[in-house]
Structures are given as C-alpha cells and as structure tokens.
Specification:
Structural class: mainly alpha
Mean pLDDT: 79
Distance between the termini: 63 Å
Number of domains: 1
Order of helices and strands: HHHHHHHHHHH
CATH class: Mainly Alpha
CATH superfamily: MetI-like
Largest sheet: none
CATH architecture: Orthogonal Bundle
Shape: globular
C-alpha cells in the first residue's frame, strides 16, 4: 500500500507540474541573450543609427518617385539578357543535376560512386552565387557567359541534392520487379525510378527556374550580365528614378516566374 501511495503522490506531482524547470535550458537561453547583447555592442548597433537610416531611406525613396522608363531600350536589353541567362542555366543545370542525382542516390549506387558525387554536389552548394560569379568573371570575363556558368553551378548544388534525396525515398519493390524481368540499368531508371519521382522533379525544376530568374538579376552586379549590371550602373550614377524603374521590372520578372511555376505544377500535378 505504501508503494501504491508513493506512486499516486508522484503522479499527482507530475500532473500539477507538467513542465519542470530545466536549469540547463535556462542557462543556454541566458547565454544566447548575453551573446546578442554583446554582439549589438561589438558592432556598434544602436537605435540612433537605425533612426538615422530610416531617415536616409525615406530620402532615397523620395528620389525614386516617379520611376523613369524613358530609357526603356536599355531596360529591355537587360531584361532579355536576364531571361536568357536564367533559362539557359536552368536547362543545363537541371539536366546535369538529373544525372548527378541518380549517381548520388545511395540506394541505387555503391558508396564508392555516391560519396564523391555527393561531395561534388556539396562543393557546388558551398559558396554564394555572387562569390561564384566573381570567380567566373575573373576567369571568362564580363558578360552573360559568367552568369550562365554561375547559375549552372548553383543549380547543381541545390537541385542535384533534392533529386538524390527524392530517389532515395522511392519504393524498391518496383525496381526489383523491373530487374527481375532482365531489364538493364537504363530501363530500370526509366520504368521504375522516374515514374515515382517525376512529379517531384518537375516541382524542383520549376522552383530552380524561379530561383535562377531572381539570381540572374543579382549576379549582374559583379559583371555577370543581366539587369543587375544595369541596376549597379544606375546606382553609381545616383540615377534613382531609373533604379526604381529597374526594380519594378525585376519584381514583374519574379512574379512572371512564380506564375509560370504555378502553371507547370498544375499541369503535372
């Protein structure tokens, strides 16, 4: 009876205090708060600087209104180049990523193949596209080629990883069934692997195209072609009304990419 009473008392205490105080968690939160306060002081962040920045931002926005579309030919040229960079890099990046994803899938390939391919994919994902763009600009010169190579590498780093993970989640029963018929490796991929992951591949690919549309306007800031170069030049000239026009076009480009992605997903759903 004493044991039963003790158990009931303990259960009553647990019901009364379901969230026990954890001193370790409290100490970690205190450490995080102290580090944030230290970081603010170390970087000289203050409400005064933020307030001054908001004032400068309001002045900048006032100089950007109304947008100036008078140089529409220059704007259209940059837009077309950004579209070309995004589409070409997406096609090549997705095509290469498809094969790399297959070879990186650990349920289809031995470790001596999948491990180095995964290392290559991780390496492509290591650096920000702007850093990669700087390297290619130094290698192949200014222009669209550097932007295309940059976004191909960025596409491989992201899409190939998702492709490999999607393939690793498939059911191997279909693979074994196709293999039992004596089919070769290509037939196994086409008739047992691809049908299980095709819809996800389409989703990944449309997302990457949308991402490349955004990045194609960004890498131009370092000379890799597209609207980014036009935007950077306008900022250097303090031509803020033209900057506003470029930003509006970039927003329209991104919205177009989102609209296109939704249509593709709806078709292949």
């Amino acid at each position: 009876m004493a044991g039963i009473n003790t158990t009931r008392s303990q259960a009553k205490i647990d019901r009364e205090n379901p969230f026990k105080h954890n001193w370790l968690v409290s100490a970690l939160w205190l450490l995080v708060v102290c580090y944030v306060v230290y970081s603010f002081n170390a970087m000289d962040l203050s409400w005064g600087r933020i307030n001054d920045g908001l004032g400068h931002a309001s002045d900048l926005l006032a100089r950007m209104v109304p947008p100036n579309f008078s140089r529409w030919s220059l704007l259209l040229g940059g837009l077309i180049e950004s579209l070309e960079i995004a589409v070409i890099s997406s096609i090549f990046g997705i095509f290469i990523s498809l094969f790399l994803g297959l070879f990186a899938a650990r349920n289809l390939m031995p470790n001596w193949i999948s491990t180095p391919i995964r290392a290559l994919i991780a390496f492509c994902r290591t650096f920000h596209p702007v850093i990669i763009a700087i390297l290619f600009v130094k290698s192949v010169g200014f222009g669209a080629l550097a932007g295309i190579l940059t976004l191909v590498v960025a596409s491989i780093g992201f899409i190939a990883k998702l492709f490999a993970e999607a393939i690793e989640e498939i059911s191997l029963k279909q693979v074994e069934a196709i293999r039992a018929t004596g089919a070769g490796f290509t037939s196994i991929i086409l008739f047992s692997v691809m049908p299980q992951v095709f819809a996800r591949f389409i989703g990944f690919s449309t997302y990457q195209l949308d991402s490349n549309l955004r990045n194609s306007t960004m890498v131009g800031i370092v000379g890799a072609g597209g609207l980014g170069g036009t935007l950077f030049s306008a900022f250097q000239r303090f031509d803020y009304d033209f900057v506003a026009a470029i930003l509006i076009v970039i927003i329209a480009l991104i919205m177009f990419g989102e609209f296109l992605s939704n249509i593709v997903r709806h078709i292949f759903r």
